[in-house]
Structure formats: C-alpha cells, structure tokens
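Appendix B, Record 12. Input sequence as logged:
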Amino acid sequence: MTPHHSLLLDDIGELVTNDPALAERGAEPDVAALGIVHDAAVVVADGRVAWVGPAAQAPAADERLDCAGGAVLPGFVDSHAHLVFAGERAGEFAARMSGRPYRAGGIGTTVTATRAASDAALRTNLARLVAELHAAGVTTFEVKSGYGLTVADEQRACRLAAEVTDEVTFLGAHVVPAEHARDRAGYLDLLTGPMLAAAAPHARWADVFVERGAFDAVEAHVVLEAAARAGLGLRVHANQLGPGPGAALAAAHGAASADHCTHLRRRDIAALADAGTVATLLPAAELGTRSPFPDARRLLAAGVTVALATDCNPGTAYTTSMPLVIALAVSGMRMTPAEAVRAATAGGATALRRTDVGRIVPGGPADLVLLDAPSHVHLAYRPGVPLLRAVWQGGVRVDRREAP
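Logged structural output:
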C-alpha cells in the first residue's frame, strides 16, 4: 500500500476485534472476549487501522475490497517457534510413529546439521518458514536459537532471527551439546558467560528447556538469573514430558510464559495464575509425538491466560499452520473455538508482553486475516481446509495468493 493510501475492507460478515467493549449484548463470555462486530468494515491507512465499525457507517477510502461476508480476524501471534536450523528429522518422526518414545536427545541431530550450514542456507530455510507462517495468517512471531550451542553459532542464530522478527529468543539452554556431556558445569559457565554476552544484543528473550535430558531446576535457575541480569525477558520450556519444576520456576522468576505445560500439578497452575505467567500450549507437539494433550480447561478455570503457538521445529512439530493448532486446541484440548482464536491472537500477544498486536483497534497495526468463511468457528469446524483468503501485515499483503 502506497503512503497515504487508504483501503476499505467492506462487507465483513464477522469482525473479530478482541476488544470486549464491542461485544454484543448477551454473548457467551468466551465469545464476548472476541469483541465481535457483525456486518462490519475496517479502514486501513498507512499501515494502521484507521477506523472500525458497522459497514453502513464506513467512511470513504481510496480503494475498496469486498470481503463478501467473510470473517476478518487479527493476524495470528505465534509466540513459540524454532526456525533457525538446517536439515530435517523425518526418519526420527517415522520411528516415533512406529513406537519409539520421544526423548529430548534428538535435538543433537539438528545441532550437527545447523553448525555445518552456511549463513545463506540458514537464511533460505528461515525465509521459507516465514513465508509459510504468513500464508497461514501469522503476522507476529517469535524465533528461538538453540540449534548451535556454541558461542559463534548461537550468536549467528540470534542475528539471523533478528533479520525477520523483533521477538528473538536466546535458547542456548536447549540441551547440553555432546562435546560437553562430561562437563555440564563447564557448559553452564559458557552458556551464562560468553554465549549469553554474544547473543543478548540480538535477542529480547532467553529460554531454558527444563526437562529430563535437558536442564534441571538448579541449572535452569542459574540460566534464568543470568539472563535477567543481562536484561532479557524470560521464557521456560516447562513440564512437557512429565511433571517437573519448569512451570514453578517460570512463575517464581516472573517469566512471561511457561510453554508446553502438558503435565501440570494443581500447585503449578496456581503458581502460574498468581504470577500472571502465560501458559503457552503447543498441541502440534502432542500430535507429533502421540502424547497426551495439555488440559486447557484446568488452566482457563484457574484464570491463567492461555496462548497457542506452533512450536515449529524439525523434530516434534514441523508445522507453521496456526489454523491447524486452533483446530487441535478445540478437538484435543476441549477449548471452545472462541477461546482458541483468542489464544492464538491476544493470548500470544500477552505471552510476548505486547499490547499492540493480536487485536484490531483504531491506531493499531493493520495485521489482518480474511477468511473464505463467515465465522471464526470455521477454523476448527473445517480443519485442513485452506480458508485464508488474504493476510495483511502492517497493511501489506504477505500471503502467497494473488491479490483479488
């Protein structure tokens, strides 16, 4: 869109704003939270939302797009993705589907491939995955490092990630690499010293994988303390493979999010609620490992903010499809369609401590998704069907389909 050019999105059957003040009287609480406006219109100008309201009251604009009764939603916010890597692990997936259990150690395969890859090869793969995210309606996304696990490779991963997003997470605490298997203390010193110092200028966040086969509670505490001193926000891979200390650590350290949360105890849920730490659920990882889904209902009942994210990675959740994640959340985690859509938009924004994305409000960025469907419900109602007609990021079309 050229400067000072305005676009009217007209004849919107259902507009999801995530502004509860716009909710229709009598709507169920989960639907009310979406702030739905029917028979709506949106005006976009200079990359931002200029006006929102009933189509009959829409102001004139330079250009008009007839949405033909389709639904318009905020762009999805993917707050957990591992996109800087080389290679793939289809063989591991096939073996897992044949009965081999998932363990954290498979990450080492990707570490080897990523270390050997050139910057150009990593950029090419990263660009491909970003294009897939855009085509799937994702307009804000986080990218983690964690497949280098040397000072130079972790710095490189964060630097490349920063070329495509402001939401970069340093994950040197993914696993202990093979060369440090007999010197965990040495790797922890490297991780919290030179590696953190090299990566931090390119990152906003730090993360740690708290799990058997990765890092224990004492080691994770050291990582989180060092990251906080370096000025990074905190995130935690927590309670994925079994009950453990991850969620409690995330809450105790004031982390923005605890991610996975597949095996939570009552006290873990209470701690997340008290701390205001978002529970980011990643059902594609359960799909890819044939594991039990997290209990979203317990989290929502306790007042915990829930986010949904893809967990895109080459080992356990090699997908960039947020519509798939929404459908899995509804079918596998017993979320309502409205809860799942809010978790994939405003919930993800909260997990990134962002107030500017995940909603459609005047003055906010024009990050929008237009569906070839009359309602947000169709994202779960018609799983696997390509319903996204158009995607705008900052008012610019970013999906692969040609403009109408």
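The mean pLDDT is 95.
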